[in-house]
Amino acid sequence: MKPIAILQHDPLQRPGYLLEFLEEHIVPARVIRPCEGDDVPRSSRFFSGIVFLGSDASVNDSDPWIECERRLAGDAVACDIPVLGHCFGAQLLARALGATVQKNAFGNIGWSDLRPTPAGRRIFGDGPRVHAFNWHYESFAIPARATRTLFGEHCLNKGFVFGKHLGFQGHFEVTEEIVRGWCSAHHEELAEAHGPAVQPAAEILTCLSERVAAVHVAARAAYGVWLRPIIRSSPVPFNGRAEMTS
Q1: The whole model's pTM is what?
Q2: What DSSP string describes the chain?
């Protein structure tokens, strides 16, 4: 099986639970860090799937690596190689599909219960809420021919599906360590951020284990749906343990 490519853009915004999930399902993965000098692959054909993680950058910025990743996302869509986008990564996928990304009415920082659409329930099940972790100020428009999967009280477009491709305006990959690291590194930002969808660090860290566990329920559902066509299309069953390079 070709590995899953995971594009990581920030030392704090790591693949976390996603890597655990892939290892559990014996799927090889390669973590690529353009922010640390790794080259962005020119072609998606070397991989069975492409994952784009979060970033403090905006997809509307002019950094060369952002344009390289947008082209990679477009190439994956053209080659029918599944793409999974988390937050910035979902915005990148939306841009590759021709949609706009702009400032959201409210910054979203902290935990929230999102509502699934009918398309979302096919991913997450029949429950009325999907628990998620958020840290974003911008949001994507739903691309043409894509379908909204999730919406929130203070951000309408929290997820979409386009064929085999999934984008989520939030983070299902977080672990307790990742959340603590973000709160510590961005304590000044949290102290200055205000709005109906912004939670202070003390609230974010309250009942952390239970909240992360609830997010991982949603993560397992979404990652399972995304991974299914990859497993089915693998020409040779992968029976060894996954080699997780990071």
Answers
A1: 0.94
A2: -PPEEEE--SSSS--THHHHHHHHTT--EEEE-GGGTPPPPS-STT-SEEEE---SS-TTS--HHHHHHHHHHHHHHHTT--EEEETHHHHHHHHHTT--EEEEEEEEEEEEEEEE-HHHHHHH-S-S-EEEEEEEEEEEPPPTT-EEEEE-SS-S--EEEETTEEEESSBSS--HHHHHHHHHHTHHHHHH--STTB--HHHHHTTHHHHHHHHHHHHHHHHHHHHHHHHHH-SS---S---EE-
Confidence of residue 234 (pLDDT cuts 50, 70, 90): confident
- For the record, the structure tokens of 77 come out as 């869509």
> Is the Cβ–Cβ distance between 10 and 182 less than 8 Å?
no
Report the top-level CATH class of 4-114+122-237: alpha beta
Tokens linked to 207: 């009942």
Q: How many Cβ atoms sit within 10 Å of the Cβ of residue 38?
A: 14
Report residue 235's pLDDT band, with 50, 70 and 90 as the boundaries: low
Q: What percent of the chain has pLDDT over 90?
A: 92
